[in-house]
């Protein structure tokens, strides 16, 4: 290749500095630079222009990458925390929201025992339930036994987890004592002289006590909604037990 003048070399220098020329052109430019100080200095100036902005851009790129990384970390943490919050909220809802149980779900788990003295115990056994509810009707005076006869209405609830996800039955026992006034505890005289109220008695306005005797037990899931159930007006539900004597 014949000798190339400086004006042509000047046009080729940017491409030469960037390595974008053919091997023959690069060889010709190199021979010219070995002999021409002006073109050599121009090449060094081009290299400085190309290098300095690159260094500045590198710092900007690093800052952008750091910001993007922080955003990704924040988004990832937010997603994890959001998922945990939704999961925890869902689990709390499933374990705390109560669903009243139908009598058919409960009846096979009700056990009643008799001690032979007119005292009965009602057990709820092996029932996977969440809460037990109960209320009594107003007592009806029974002058012969110096007591009041009452009717007890009971109900049970399950949470969503127990109803749809829990496997097997949990060993839980709920006991309802149904004492006979004559044979059970306390006796009438003890009740009148006692300063404390027994579970099976109520204190009257004059300071005396009326003993209560359970004569019937019903199951009604409506009792689980205490605000909506009136044991003296509403249908009492399914008869579970009745005192015979």
Number of strands: 10
β-sheet strand percentage: 15-25%
**Using only CA atoms, what is the Rg?**
46 Å
Q: How would you spell out the order of helices and strands?
A: HHHEHEEEEEHEHEEE
End-to-end separation: 131 Å
Give helix % range. Answer: 40-55%
How many domains make up the coordinates?
Answer: 2
Query: Which structural class is indicated by helix and strand composition?
Result: alpha+beta
Poorly predicted residue ranges: 184-199
**What is the mean pLDDT?**
75
Largest sheet: 7 strands, mixed
- Overall shape: it is rod-shaped
User: How many helical elements?
Assistant: 6
In short:
With 245 residues, the protein is α+β, with helices and mostly antiparallel strands.
Description:
The strands form two sheets. Strands 1, 4, 5, 6, 8, 9 and 10 form a seven-stranded mixed β-sheet that branches. Strands 2-3-7 form a three-stranded antiparallel β-sheet, with no helix packed on it. The radius of gyration is 46 Å and the shape is rod-shaped. The protein is built from six helices and ten strands. Helix content is 41%, strand content 25%. It has 245 residues and is an alpha+beta fold. It folds into two domains: 6-95; 103-242, no CATH class. Helix 1 packs across helix 2 (23-35) and helix 2 packs across helix 3. The protein has helices spanning 6-17, 23-35, 37-96, 103-106, 160-164, 188-193, and strands at 98-100, 110-114, 120-125, 131-136, 140-142, 147-159, 173-178, 201-203, 209-219, 238-242.
Keywords:
2 domains; seven-stranded mixed β-sheet; 245 residues; single chain; three-stranded antiparallel β-sheet; 10 strands
């Amino acid at each position: 290749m014949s000798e190339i003048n400086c004006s042509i070399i000047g046009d080729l220098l940017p491409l030469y500095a960037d390595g974008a020329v053919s091997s023959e052109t690069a060889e010709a430019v190199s021979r010219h630079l070995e002999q021409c100080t002006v073109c050599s200095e121009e090449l060094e100036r081009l290299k400085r222009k190309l290098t300095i902005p690159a260094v500045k851009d590198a710092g900007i790129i690093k800052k952008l990458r750091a910001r993007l990384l922080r955003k990704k970390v924040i988004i990832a943490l937010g997603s994890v925390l959001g998922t945990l919050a939704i999961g925890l909220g869902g689990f709390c809802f499933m374990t705390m929201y109560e669903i009243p149980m139908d009598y058919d779900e409960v009846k096979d788990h009700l056990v009643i025992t008799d001690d032979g003295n007119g005292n009965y115990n009602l057990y709820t056994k092996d029932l996977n339930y969440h809460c037990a509810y109960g209320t009594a009707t107003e007592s009806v005076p029974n002058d012969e036994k110096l007591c009041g006869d009452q009717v007890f209405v009971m109900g049970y609830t399950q949470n969503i987890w127990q109803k749809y996800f829990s496997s097997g039955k949990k060993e839980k026992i709920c006991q309802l004592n149904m004492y006979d006034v004559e044979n059970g505890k306390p006796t009438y005289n003890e009740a009148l002289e006692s300063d404390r109220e027994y579970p099976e008695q109520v204190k009257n306005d004059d300071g005396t006590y009326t003993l209560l005797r359970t004569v019937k037990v019903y199951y009604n899931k409506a009792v689980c909604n205490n605000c909506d159930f009136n044991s003296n007006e509403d249908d009492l539900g399914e008869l579970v037990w009745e005192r015979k004597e």
